[in-house]
Amino acid sequence: MTKPTAAHAAAPLRTSFLDQVEDSTQLAMGAKIQVWGGPETGKSHDAYENLPRPLIVVDSDVSAGLFNDDRFEGFKRLGPDKIPDIETLIAFLDEFTSDARWYRTYKSLLIDSLTQFVDPKVAQLGIDMTSAAEKQDGRAQADWARVAKELTRLVRKVSALGVNIYVVAEERTRFVGNRPGDGEEGAKSSLSPKKFTHAFDLILQKTSKGDVIVRKTRYRKWTKDQKLAGYQAPRDLAPILQGTEQKAAGLEDFDPGTAAHEELMELLKALGSDVRGGKIPLAKMREYLALAKNNDAGEPEVRRSINEIKRTYGDAARAA
Predict the structure, then answer these.
(1) CATH class of 27-241
(2) Nearest 10 degrees: CA dihedral of 253, 256, 260, 261?
(3) What is the residue extent of each domain of the chain?
(4) pLDDT for 190-228, tens place per residue?
(5) The organism sits in which domain of life (predicted)?
(6) Residue 178 C-alpha from the chain's centroid
């Protein structure tokens, strides 16, 4: 009879997979929220006040100290010395979503702010993200597209693991010679939501501490471009972060892999099916909905369907 080797003797007993099975009731998506606007509008305050704990903060703005007092529950922080640029942010998010010690520990992740990561990258690539100039350098655009695609993929993955992700972005001016412009050169920068819209369930623009414009929502309680006066995050935002606010019908499990998937869904919602007074036959509507929710479908395939729908049934503007 052969004796067990030292390697066999030292091997730890593995927990059975049977003991690790999770019930479907345990699975929940975290909220994906972007809040942007000018300074002193309460973007960060709303996050520190309402995000469920435990909370980890990527503090690129070095503002966490303003919220480290008895007004708020505690949190953990990674400052700009630990995460200095967007490549390191992506590496952190990749680790966060790959290591259960992160996503099993924290209920919320705050990035404050994304602007501090994107602006230097935009300047490095020499891209003006707010004008036709952004199309002049194809290689720079391709480099930026890769970064943006990976960032949005990881934002969605954080949420899929049941962690809330709240991203702050600042309203900036356009870049002129790789520097923000002033006066008449002022315009909304890339940190307005246009480059990252499909990654988020909710995008809010704060124009003051109590005034908000809902730039995008997948929740029932608001509509796109709705203006909210008297906005109070503990009343209006906290239910979303706590998972008690319902999403709009048909969007409960919608997590588009590309901007095209989201554009297709928005077009379908605007045109509607013929059984509800809309334009698209029910059988075709079901086919298109399945495509919108199929993240394995490539963006070119989805774009072809968008163009087909517009040719056949009209676009959303004509439907409105």
Answers:
(1) alpha beta
(2) -30
(3) 27-241, 259-319
(4) 444 456 678 899 999 999 999 999 999 999 999 989 999
(5) Bacteria
(6) 26
Q: Using a cut of 0.85, tell me whether the model's pTM lies above it.
A: no
Burial of residue 198 (number of CB atoms within 10 Å: 0-12, 13-18, 19+): buried
The percent of residues in the chain predicted with pLDDT above 90, rounded, is: 57
Q: What phi and psi values does residue 39 have, to the nearest 5 degrees? A: -70, 155
Whether the bond between 234 and the residue before it is cis, its omega within 30 degrees of 0, is no
Taken as a whole, the chain contains a residue count of 320
Helix residue ranges per DSSP H, the chain: 6-10, 43-50, 86-98, 100-103, 115-125, 138-160, 233-236, 238-241, 259-271, 282-292, 299-313, 316-319
Measured between alpha carbons, how far is 119 from 179 in angstroms, rounded to an integer?
Answer: 9
CA gap 245, 186 in Å, rounded: 37
Query: For position 282, what pLDDT does the model report?
Result: 94
